[in-house]
Amino acid sequence: MLKVVLEPNFIQPGNVFSLPLDYRTGFMSIIKSAFQSESPIDYDLVFNRRTVKPYTFAVAFGDDVKVQDEKIYFNRPLEFKFSSFDLNDEILLYNYFVRSKTIKIFGRDFDVSNLWIFENKKIKGNSAIFKTLSPVLIRSHKNEKFYLCPKCENFDGDEAFYEALKFNVSELVRNLLGREVSGEINFKPVKTRRVVVKHLTDRGNLKLPGFTGLFLFEAESEVLNLILRAGLGARRSQGFGMLELVYEVSR
């Protein structure tokens, strides 16, 4: 995983800074620029040829965050986290941030004040508790316009969620591991909430339902490590579905 701390390099009254509520598109542009700059060959593979991207990302604004008038307000440095099934992608972005030193996000300068790259802990068993770093979107495989959620603290759950989840994971395994899923896939919410996220897509601004929080996931260890590194669900490369391992569950 790559972690980058970005410090605003401009003055705002009260040191309160803002980005558009759909901030993810700005970071998608940064990732694309990094691939273009550091490796045209990888850029062509990831953006022109590969249909399933092997990475995910998340942005943290700190605890003191306010959403108002289609903007998100914050007063702390941003934390940008990027993880890929292909370690080369993480190294590529690391080198880009080291060389750039200052990054433009929606026309504003942010200094790279610190960055780290470290390996995720490898999961050895078949059961683990995960925490979402960005909302997870599970798209219905029967109607791609619909997104489904599990039972949450604030939602009763969509009946077709588990079938769609298993289909999503099976497709990810097929595309990135080159094989079929072996064994059962089980999901159990621990402490989750349904959220609705505004996101700019090729079909315009959409409001996408997803979920955040803690959940138990059971699958073969290679699949658990895959979703830890590449993310879970739809639109992972657009800033959704990034996970953090809380702990393995002993059986």
Automatic annotation (TrEMBL):
The keyword Repressor does not apply. The keyword Phosphoprotein does not apply. One of its GO terms (molecular function) is hydrolase activity, acting on ester bonds. CDD domains: Cas6_I-like. Signal peptide: none annotated. InterPro entries: Cas_Cas6_C (IPR049435), CRISPR-assoc_prot_Cas6 (IPR010156), CRISPR-assoc_prot_Cas6_N_sf (IPR045747). Residues 119-245 form the CRISPR associated protein Cas6 C-terminal domain. It holds the Pfam family Cas_Cas6_C. Keywords: Antiviral defense. GO terms for biological process: defense response to virus. PANTHER family: CRISPR-ASSOCIATED ENDORIBONUCLEASE CAS6 (PTHR36984:SF3), CRISPR-ASSOCIATED ENDORIBONUCLEASE CAS6 1 (PTHR36984). This is CRISPR-associated endoribonuclease Cas6.
